[in-house]
Amino acid sequence: MKKSKIIFLILFFTSFVSYSQSYTKSDIIIFITKYKNAAIKKMNEHGIPASVTLAQGILESAAGTSELAQNANNHFGIKCGGAWNGETYLKDDDNKNDCFRKYNSVEESYEDHSQFLLKNKRYAFLFDYDSDDYISWSKGLQDAGYATNPEYSKILVRIIEEYELYNYDKNIPKTEKAETVTTPTVVKPHESESDAFVILGIVYRPVSVMYDRNVYINNHTRFIVAKEGDTYLKIAEEFFSDEKYIRKYNDVSKTETLKPGEIVYIESKRSKGAVDFHIVTKGETIHQIAQFQGIKQKSLMSLNSMNDSYQIVEGESLWLKKKRPQSSKPSY
Question: pTM of the entire structure?
């Protein structure tokens, strides 16, 4: 083995041991069980992978056993900073009596962690990653300076993969009602041609049936097709979700109504498309294209340097995987 590899393994092992010595595997499992729903909730509200939130919580709070976690409900080691007006907790860290944020509940800690990332410009690029891309998020947190440990991202990934936390990154939020309802049976999809659904000339066939609805997949994202009488609220209730999440997944406002035959995604769309380009056809809107391609509307607009006033035109090529080159950017 090369000397550099030996040094790396020693550093990694030392880093990993440093976070695991003060708590046990049992502590980690209990922590995951207690706080996975909080992490999933924040993922669906803000787009931060639940796996990364949980891994950070485990690492920063010693699986909920640290002094900060026990006495201040602070799971992420967030210090006071100039903008903090809440309660504080003093603890020796980089300096004597460093000021840390104190919360009334653990839930407040999870929300503040999300807001800390959302409002801090140095973390803005992270939200271009998909909410199931825990590797990019982990590396990005380290690159942005969240922690000083040079092995921080590797430790997060190690925790995520060892405890299979990535399974929570594709979870649909559930209400209290979901706890008392039997998990839906996923049955073999119908085989009739009437169940096929066509988007841009591509025939999609159902991959499963849930709650008597055919479920399809476009760009690795599950969707259903609206029926007569459907509303966003009705679909949210059927899938034990929340109306605001279903609307968010589909890039629609609070007042937008649902029409039969429309695509309704039941989980967050991707930040990049499955194909390189989309050629605009007559009458298409940016929202329709985002739905057809299974890509977030804000990502589609960002990739193509569009602002809200930009009008797409027939025959225009929209980039779906990479940033549109400067030479072909739209003019306003």
Answer: 0.53
